[in-house]
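re: that chain from earlier
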Amino acid sequence: MFTAPRDEPPDRRVADGAPPSPEAVAKEFANPLGRIQRFPVQFDWDGDVGPDDRDRGVLSFEPVIALPLSESLFLYSQTKAPIVYREKEPTTGEDEIELGDVLQNFYFTPNDPTDAGWTLGLGPAIQIPASEEGPISSTQSGFGPAGIAVIQGGPFTIGAQATHLWRLTGENDRDDLNRTTFEPFLAFTTPGALTLSLNAESVYDWSSDDLAVPLNLEATQVFEIFDQFFSVGGGVRYWAEESDDGPEGFGARIVVSVIFAPKL
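^ sequence. v structure.
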């Protein structure tokens, strides 16, 4: 069984009392429950979206904040606030640009990993609609559970996170919000602070019985400028399973992040 080294628990690789190295920060960055503050800006591009085969671009602001609640408990705030662009709508001939629904996860995480080396987090997931009408926003608020499990050993980071959302408010002619997301991930960090990662951002819509499974292969480099850490990354995506209104084939991703790695 894969276990993290007991003499180097994954949640303390930055907390050695000395300024963290780029490699140590890269390992923390590969861990969604790393003890750092991160402010990524992510751009996703996909083609052949929906029955009209339109292009789509999504610019997302995705800050992750780690807050110590006590000596034994951390709170993680994970936000995704997108701006969505879609190519010209056939009936109007106009491009669509709109704020997307905001997704907010909170994870309550014990300070110490399990005996097997896993770091676990549980908490609520919230969806905040961007508008009460519009072609891109679901116009529905949602609430449900969120969970995450991560283990690190040597250069590897392995884990998965999942959420489920049910509709709270919002009435329209669309299917009620009833959606599960599941994201397993695997990352490998080199001594040069380069991380190669693979994940699947699977989404299943229970109301429409629709599944989408994009596979993302990415490379991310962490570096330091005047004692401030940054990361730049990018990769390709392949839609192994396409939803009825979603993209097909290949897409691309670019991510730029500002990272704060305090001496914990």
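Residues 5-16 have pLDDT under 50 and may be disordered.
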